Amino acid sequence: MSALMPTYARLPVTFTRGEGAVLYDTEGRAYLDGLSGIAVTNLGHAHPAITEAIQQQASQLMHTSNLYRIQPQEDLADALTSITGMERVFFGNSGAEANEAAIKLARMYGHQRGVERPSIVVLESAFHGRTMATLSATGNRKIQAGFEPLVGGFVRAARGDSAAIAAIADNNPDVVAVMVEPIQGEGGVMPLGDEYLRELRTLCDANEWLLIYDEVQSGNGRTGHHFYYLGTDVVPDIVTTAKGLGNGMPIGACMARGKAADVFGPGHHGSTYGGGHLACAAALAVTNTLSGGDLTNRALSLGETVRSAVVAGVADNSVITDLRGQGLMIGIELTRDCTELVGQALGAGLLINVTAGNTIRLLPPLVMSKEQAGELGAGVAALINAFYA
Ligand SMILES: Cc1ncc(COP(=O)(O)O)c(C=O)c1O
Coiled-coil stretches, from where to where (predicted)? Predict the structure, then answer.
């Protein structure tokens, strides 16, 4: 037993080294990484460009303060805004902090329009983080239980039901924003669907609400575009991201455009570490590496390789009730709870995850070879076969 607070049910393995899509444990055993530290190491482990950027920056300057200008922070904001079409960026250190910034921004936008108790519409089975505001926005009672009183100002709506949100618009003058993950991650890899997202955009426009996309998990190349929405015709007012943005270096970003861009002024928000030299240098290297488009395209083709290998390898495809997601954000829903597969996969040298009880979640690195993608799919199929044997 360690002295750590037991907030995680950890698997019995310790990794000491990684290279691309492979991790090595203390015994030197290799594992194929089908999870990327939950959508973080999108560029794989020990990517040379990221390592070099970190080494170079660490040897030069690690921290000053947001009291001063920080060149790598400005460079990263420029790179992100030119890729996304957003206009302004606030940097924090995690996905939850990026979402806290978005929630604060939406509330302040409401106050500036004379709404005294601004509310944000959030969805069932959403996941937005573990801070008090973001867990209150999250649509999972297990994450909230024991932490009441929750933060107010969130209105919950059923996923995929735009009529329910239209009814909220008719009855609740306090609403100022809608916050969604375009593909819900923790909720079971659930794409909301472009038609529904279009309807949300129309509702937000009609009511002068902000549309907030949480792309903490779907962003940074994983779904075939730098951010999911860049492959669609719906543009949100605010986009949050984290995870893959730093490829392992803690960083989160809240990006805004249009009427959301100039809401914050001096003193409205801040973070000692947010947007620090080291994290921004790493994230700039990640962003530049992804911006060529080769890896984002690769996410789509490797996603197909993984899916086909799963389908080809599973003896009885009726045990798969749904195979969904986009690119390298893949959910394989089975007929029953399959949490035990995570431990069995580890035994087989594969790192996978199960979410929402019955859905195998795969989030492998974009740098994986085609052979490794096939191996991952075949490995998962073998686990499914043994599970139903
Ligand atoms: C969609 C989404 N939003 C927010 C978060 C929270 O991010 P973090 O753990 O970096 O605070 C996560 C983490 O899983 C996520 O998937």
Answer: none
**Phi and psi at residue 94, to the nearest 5°:** -165, 175
What tens digit of pLDDT does each residue of 335-354 get?
999 999 999 999 999 999 99
Res 273: pLDDT: 98
Instruction: Report the distance separating Cα 311 and Cα 323, nearest Å.
Output: 9
Cβ–ligand 1 distance for 181 under 6 Å, the answer yes
Residue 253 · residue 220 · CB < 8 Å: no
298: confidence class by pLDDT, cuts 50, 70, 90: very high
Cis peptide before 149 (omega within 30 of 0): yes
Please give the average per-residue pLDDT across 319-348, as a whole number.
98
pLDDT at 1: 67
Residues belonging to the binding site for pyridoxal 5'-phosphate are 95-96, 127, 214-217, 272
Atom 7 of ligand 1, residue of closest alpha carbon: 95
Q: Between 319 and 1, whose confidence is greater?
A: 319
List the one residue out of 278, 313, 316 whose CA is nearest residue 53: 278
Section 293-320 average pLDDT: 97
Q: Return the sign of the alpha-carbon dihedral for residues 356, 298, 243, 227.
A: negative
The domains located in the chain, with CATH, are 15-33+293-388 (3.90.1150.10), 48-291 (3.40.640.10)
CA 144 – ligand 1 centroid, Å: 15
215 Cβ closer than 6 Å to some ligand 1 atom: no
Centre of ligand 1 from the C-alpha of residue 39, in Å:
10
95 lines ligand 1 (CB under 6 A): yes
Looking from the CA of residue 218, the nearest atom of ligand 1 is: 1
Q: Cα(181) to centroid of ligand 1, in Å?
A: 10
Nearest-atom number in ligand 1 for the CA of 97 is 11
Q: What is the mean pLDDT of the chain?
A: 98
